[in-house]
Amino acid sequence: MTYSEPSTSDFWEKITHGFKKMGGEVAILAITLWLVMTDPKTPISIKITIGSALAYLIMPVDMIPDFIPVTGYADDLAALSAAATAAGTSITEEHKTQAREKWEAL
């Protein structure tokens, strides 16, 4: 079985075009997880968990459609939160700082 990360362009398109709808904290969590997943020091099992959650975020079809106001990103947030919990100590302060800087640059 091979591991494949979610597409970089698909991820950043979702973040840059959907950030107003998803809200800052969801976007920052997604960016943080992206940084953890792309960090060479992150174990492959954590990368797979994060990659699955990020793939769910960028999929055009999910349990609660993203275009529904307020609740549209609730299922995405649940997936991201579960991945962040699983990632645990793989998430560093550097990842968090870089995520906030990237978010502010948007």
Q: Any overview of this molecule?
A:
The protein is an all-alpha fold and 106 residues long. It has helices at 8-22, 24-38, 44-58, 74-87, 93-105. The chain has one domain (8-105). The longest helix is centred in the N-terminal third of the chain and has 15 residues, at 8-22. The termini are far apart. The model has no long low-confidence stretch (mean pLDDT 83).
| Straight-line N-to-C gap | 36 Å
Outline the biggest β-sheet.
none
Inertia-based shape: globular
What portion of residues belong to β-strands?
Answer: under 5%
Q: Give the count of structural domains.
A: 1
Unreliably modeled segments: none
Number of helical segments with 4 or more residues: 5
SS content category? mainly alpha
Mean pLDDT: 83
Number of strands: 0
Secondary-structure element series: HHHHH
Helix content: 55-70%
Rg (C-alpha, Å): 13 Å
What assembly state would you assign to the polypeptide chains in this entry?
Answer: single chain
